[in-house]
Design goal:
three-stranded parallel beta sheet, alpha/beta, 73 residues, globular, D-Maltodextrin-Binding Protein, domain 2
Length: 73
């Protein structure tokens, strides 16, 4: 997930970017294997979304149903 209007569309765009994910999740572990990405871990999904809204990260990676649910709330 990226903010509306973001240029980030694929993994290649994330090089040199700060990408948030939930600590200890499969997404967090996978992002840790990608060189050039600063993987920022958050303890909770709500903090992950807040980080994106605040501009602390350029994108977040997390399970789609949980992101959609959190956005609806």
């Amino acid at each position: 997930m990226v903010p509306a209007g973001s240029e980030v569309k694929t993994l290649g765009y994330w090089k040199g970017k700060r990408v948030g994910s939930k600590l200890c999740s499969i997404e967090y572990l996978a992002l840790g294997e990608v060189s050039g990405i600063e993987n920022i871990g958050y303890k909770e999904i709500s903090l992950l979304l807040e980080g994106l809204v605040a501009g602390d990260v350029d994108a977040i990676v997390y399970a789609q149903p949980m992101v959609h649910y959190s956005i609806s709330k």
